[in-house]
């Protein structure tokens, strides 16, 4: 009988976007260290009126979040290739 141990390490990032203390949107990204795949999910828009009134800024925040997630993915790839 062979004993096998598999370890998985995931990094999950989450950001909540508020306007005047009202939750508008939740962003999430998960990076799997075994496959280096990244998945994004966005919870539904909580308040469409506030979203529409602030969509330019919200989209900027979403783009920054996505960039940050890809930077973390690249960092994890670098850690793997360096043996960490």
Q: Mind explaining what this structure looks like?
A:
- The radius of gyration is 17 Å and the shape is elongated.
- With 84 residues, it is α+β, with helices and mostly antiparallel strands.
- It has a 3-stranded antiparallel sheet with strand order 1-2-3.
- It has one domain.
- It contains 2 helices and 3 strands; from the N terminus they run βββαα.
- A hairpin with a 5-residue loop joins strand 2 (22-32) and strand 3.
- The mean pLDDT is 89.
- It has helices at 48-53, 55-81, and strands at 10-19, 22-32, 38-42.
Query: DSSP strand (E) fraction?
Result: 25-35%
Q: Approximately how much helix is present in the residues? A: 25-40%
The class by helix and strand makeup works out as: alpha+beta
What is the domain tally? 1
**Number of helical segments with 4 or more residues:** 2
Shape: elongated
Q: Biggest sheet: strands, sense, closure? A: 3 strands, antiparallel
Instruction: Report the C-alpha radius of gyration, rounded.
Output: 17 Å
Mean pLDDT: 89
Order of helices and strands: EEEHH
Number of DSSP E strands? 3
Sum this structure up briefly.
This protein is of the alpha+beta class and 84 residues long.
Task: Name its key features.
3-stranded antiparallel β-sheet; elongated; alpha+beta; 84 residues
Indicate the topology:
Elements: E1 10-19, E2 22-32, E3 38-42, H1 48-53, H2 55-81
Antiparallel strand pairs: 1-2, 2-3
């Amino acid at each position: 009988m062979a004993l096998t141990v598999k370890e998985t390490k995931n990094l999950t990032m989450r950001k909540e976007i508020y306007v005047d203390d009202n939750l508008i949107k939740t962003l999430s990204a998960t990076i799997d260290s075994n496959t280096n795949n990244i998945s994004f999910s966005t919870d539904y828009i909580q308040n469409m009126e506030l979203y529409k009134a602030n969509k330019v800024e919200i989209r900027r925040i979403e783009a920054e979040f996505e960039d940050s997630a890809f930077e973390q993915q690249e960092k994890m790839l670098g850690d793997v290739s360096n043996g960490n």
